[in-house]
Prior knowledge:
Layout (H helix, E strand, L loop, with lengths): L4 E5 L5 H11 L4 E5 L3 H7 L14 H8 L4 E4 L2 H7 L2 E4 L19 H13 L4 E5 L7 H12 L5 E5 L9 H6 L4 E5 L3 H14 L8 E5 H32 L3 H9 L20 H14 L3 H28 L8 E5 L14 H11 L3 E5 L5 H11 L4 H7 E3 L3 H5 L4 E4 L11 H7 L5 E4 L6 H7 L2 E4 L3
Parallel strand pairs: 1-2, 1-4, 2-3, 4-5, 5-6, 7-8, 9-10, 9-12, 10-11, 12-13, 13-14
Helix pairs in contact: 1-3, 5-6, 9-11, 9-12, 11-12, 12-13, 13-14
Bound molecules: nicotinamide-adenine-dinucleotide and uridine-5'-diphosphate-glucuronic acid.
Pathway: Nucleotide-sugar biosynthesis; UDP-alpha-D-glucuronate biosynthesis; UDP-alpha-D-glucuronate from UDP-alpha-D-glucose: step 1/1
InterPro entries: 6-PGluconate_DH-like_C_sf, NAD(P)-bd_dom_sf, UDP-Glc/GDP-Man, UDP-Glc/GDP-Man_DH_C, UDP-Glc/GDP-Man_DH_C_sf, UDP-Glc/GDP-Man_DH_dimer, UDP-Glc/GDP-Man_DH_N, UDPglc_DH_euk
Family: Belongs to the UDP-glucose/GDP-mannose dehydrogenase family.
Amino acid sequence: MKITKICCIGAGYVGGPTMAVIAQKCPDIQVTVVDLNEARIAAWNDADVANIPIYEPGLDAIVAEARGRNLFFSTEVEKAIDEAQIIFISVNTPTKTYGKGKGMAADLKYIELCARQIARVAKDNKIVVEKSTLPVRTAEAIKSILDHTGNGVQFQILSNPEFLAEGTAVQDLLHPDRILIGGDSSEEGQKAIQALVGVYSNWVAADKILTTNVWSSELSKLTANAFLAQRISSINAMSELCEKTGADVNEVAKAIGMDSRIGPKFLKASVGFGGSCFQKDILNLVYIAKSYGLNEVADYWEQVIIMNDHQKRRFSNTIVQTLYNTVADKKITFLGWAFKKDTNDTRESAAIYVADALVNEQAQIAVYDPKVSEKKVLADLDYLETRTSAQNKACVASFEDPYLACKGAHAIAILTEWDEFKEYDWKKIYDSMQKPAFVFDGRNVLNAAEMKAIGFVYHAIGS
Ligand code: NAD
Ligand code: UGA
């Protein structure tokens, strides 16, 4: 089947960049990205590409090239569904906040709404692609909804999970390690798989496109995130042991990473991983394992989250203890609020939890992040519902200038590994701070010897 029209439901961190790259690489395919969020779609359509809603290095140029040619952003969901041969579902699948599975299971209400809408609108056969990260066997539920509420047309469900990381999304999409497509073993299922393989073949080598059954594909996505997050919790566990024993976690990570069986990536000790997916996907995995009665499997993976929560708490505790057991009314400056560098995304960022703990101790928090606004910082804290908005506002302020943010501070905490932090005039910052001047480097980005030579009391993770 020759694919000429694709639609994607969900114009978020995955739908937007993924479809922009498909449109750039497949000029003969019309790609329409739809969303219910009018403000988000308006931002994607902003005449100035600097204002698109997601900051990702290189994304603005791709959107500028393809938008209006074969890439469109719209709120007309039904029209896009009606016209498309392939429909990607890329809506959010957050952790449930209510009912059965609260705090663990994935909330699939947005997915079900999409399935019902596709069923209602579709007047010819469609390929429906799960791009969102979903519990294993969700395709079965989608298929059941489509087949029972549709107009008698045929649907093929494919699982095509996304492995991009934020901050490097464009490079990850242009040069993926692999593309995973799961589908049905029937002849129709295999044809659908080949139609999607045909789209990716425009820029991805055949040996990197992996086809599997649907369940393997769905479970591989959860497994990949669990393994990645587990490496971070493993090195973070070692960081605490390093601090007690005089070992240096950077040296340990380098030493083990040179073992080709372990490899060097994802061994950077930190204040704890954040982002919208690692915690959500592991909780989801734990929930699935428990629902099959696999308690040892569930406990094994849950420990990754327990360790990560411990690491965030440990960081705020260290700050309080080092500052003579009180941070009340002390200015503590956060450099970085995003969950990692090169993104404006703050979902589940460690900074939120560290700030919350320090505000509980009545600290005054000053925040500087090159891509995150004060409004977002306050909204993130309000979302925790630890205290009122007015109380958060009285304790937390953002700055546009990092030097001003650090002026008069008792301590600086580095929460995100933005490259620019390494380039600052640290002597100038030191001179403007209260003494002793403390730096808690939650990302190990600064040079310990240089910081100590300036006069800072410098704390890194894991040394
Ligand atoms: P997001 O919240 O940024 O975007 C989801 C969008 O879907 C929102 O704009 C929302 O308005 C829209 N939406 C929800 N229901 C809708 C409906 N019925 N009709 C139209 N639009 C609707 O989420 P995201 O970060 O892009 O993640 C989407 C999925 O991809 C999740 O399952 C996530 O686990 C997975 N994923 C995310 C990443 C990542 O780096 N963020 C990477 C890989 C996979
Ligand atoms: C992660 C995965 O890397 C992607 O493959 C996956 O597609 C995505 O989740 C998803 O499913 O959403 P992302 O969360 O965007 O991507 O970013 P990562 O680079 O994985 O970083 C996650 C968190 O771990 C960040 O807070 C980061 O700072 C932290 N991290 C990462 C460490 O603390 N140490 C490391 O060595 C690596």
